[in-house]
Amino acid sequence: MVLRDRDCTMNSPIVHGNKPALIYGQNICIQPSVPGREDTPHMRKHYLGHLDPLESYTTFFVLFSGGKDSVASVLNLLETGVPRSKIVLIHHDIDGGSERKMDWPATKAYCIAFADAFDLEIRFSFREGGFWGEVYRYGSKKPVQFQDADGSMRRIEPVAWQRSQELKMLMDSAEREDDLELFKQYDEELRSYGYRFQFPAKGANLQTRYCSGVLKIEVGSVAIAHQVDTKENCKIMVVSGERRGESTNRSKYNMMELHRTHAPQRRKRIVHHYRNVIDFSEKDIWEVLKRNRVVPHPCYVVGWGRASCACCIFSSPSHFAGIKEILPSYYENIRLAEIELNFTLDNKKSIDEFVGSAKSCVDHNEQKAIHQLLTGEIGPEDILLDHVEEWKYPSGAFRSGVGGPC
C-alpha cells in the first residue's frame, strides 16, 4: 500500500527507510516490489523483470536534482555498498545559461557541495536557453550541452536546428524586401519544427507539460547516450528518485525498466533504469537523510515542501507568495510573461489572482538558509552535520501541499 505524501506525517511509521543490507558484491538480483506493468506499448517496450547484481554495472548515473529524493537515492546506493568511484551524479541546469531565471540560485551550488562532501563525481547538462527559451520557442528545440567524462562540455544539435536558424535569416531578408508571401512560407516551415509561446500545462502528459520532458528527460538521455564512457560495450544503471507517494501518475511507475538509451544490438550498450526509492514514503526519505546526517537543500529549511524549480508550475499560492517575497524578480518575470504571451501559468487565473492573499511559506527564523537560498553560498561543510549538532526536520517537511503535486 502506498502512503501518499499528503497523508504522511512526522509520526508515520518507517517502512522502507531503515538502513538496507550490503548487497553489492553478493551476486544478488534485485526484484521489483510490484510486478512491472506491460499494459501499454511503451511499458511493454521498456519492461524489465529484474535488475542484475549491482556489481555487474560499470557506472551508476544518478539523475540528481539536489532535492531530498535524489539525495536519498544516492545515499541508498552507498548504503547498499556501491563504490563511490562508480557513481556519477548528473544535474540538469533548468535555466540553461538564460539571464531570466526559473530555478533556485542555490541549487547548482548545493549539488556541487553534496558531491564534494561525499567524494562523488558530478557532471552538468542543460538545454540552451533553459526554461524561458522553451516557453518562447519558435522553430527547432535548442541544442543540448553536457559535461563529458573528461570534464569538457559537448554540444549536440537537434536535426532541425541548422535549418531553423537558416529560416530565421531568410525571414529577416524577406521582411526587409517586403515579400509577404515568401515570409509566410518560411514562417510556416519554421513553425512546423515547433512553436510554443505558452507555459507548460499542469498535467501528467509530458507533451504539454513539456518542462519535464524537454528540459530534464530528453537532456538526460542525450547526456547519457553521448558520454564517451557509455558509447559502446558497457553496462549502465540510471538511477532516479521518483516515488509513488508523490502523485497518482508516479504511483504507476515501474521500479525498474529498460532506459531509453538502451542499445544492446547497435551499440552493445545495456542501460537499465532503477527507481530505488520508489516505494519510500516522505517519512522514509527523511529517515535516510537523518541517519546520514545530511542537511537538505535550503529551500526545505526555509519552508518549501519540494525542491523542484523555484517557480514550479505546480506550486501552491503560498509557495508563489514566498517567491514574490524573497525572489521578486522571478515573480515579476512570470507576471510580465503572462501579459506578453496572453497565456497564464495557471489554467484559469493570472499569477496575481492565483496567489491572492495567500500567506508566504517562508520561515524567517532560518536566516542562514534564506541567505544560502538566494546567494548559492554553500560549501561541503554545510552538507553534513557533525556529531554534536542535532538533525531536525526542515520547516518544509510534510508540507507537500506547499509544493504541489508532481
UniProtKB/TrEMBL annotation:
PANTHER family: PHOSPHOADENOSINE PHOSPHOSULFATE REDUCTASE, SULFATE ADENYLYLTRANSFERASE SUBUNIT 2. This is Phosphoadenosine phosphosulfate reductase family protein. Pfam families: PAPS_reduct. Residues 61-312 form the Phosphoadenosine phosphosulphate reductase domain. InterPro entries: PAPS_reduct_dom (IPR002500), Rossmann-like_a/b/a_fold (IPR014729), Sulfate_adenylyltrnsfr_sub2 (IPR050128).
